[in-house]
Amino acid sequence: MVLSRNAILFAAAALYLALGFTAGFVTANAALVLALGIELFRRGRSQRGIVLMAGGALVILIRHFVLFFALMVLAAAVILFEARRSPPGRLPGRHGFYLAMRREEENWVLQPFSSWHLIGDVRLDLTRAMPEEPETVIALQGLLGDVHLLVPEDWGLWVEASVPVGRIKWQHAPDDAGVNRLVWRTPDYENKRFRLRLKVFYLVGDVKITPG
User: Fold this and answer.
1) CA distance 99 to 119
2) 150 closest CA partner among 190, 182, 110
């Protein structure tokens, strides 16, 4: 059953009022800003979405520190669980609060890479990349992520991606609007000259893979 727009608006208004009367309207407004930020982030407007999410989360943090701390612990546990499922072997990389990785304009050397972070902004044009090895593994895990990859059509590709809140969009996705979880492998993956194994997990994210 598909709900009408009026029904969705009515349910959202009821939820807002319920949250306002139970937790306070300052918290309700902060949650509304946070939800708006998540939606903007899902649509690819990452910078504005991050600002709204950070503002809403900050207000909730100040007013409900215990609840916010519990949610952060839960998020960290989920990220750690996903990280343990990464491809075997230790990968070089860096871990921290923010990852900004852009390789779009010049030729560059592609190396195996792994990163755990809270916020990630990744733009890679792999048509300009020179792989060091026949198979390259890239593993990205975090809380918020915006990932865009341009992958050569003659490469082998193995994708394991999950974004509970957000979307994964590419040519083999069953839905043009994107999916939340994707596991796909090129049929003749092992026979390709160059192969990319991509492992991505963000609690909130926008992942786009485009053939080049």
Assistant:
1) 6
2) 110
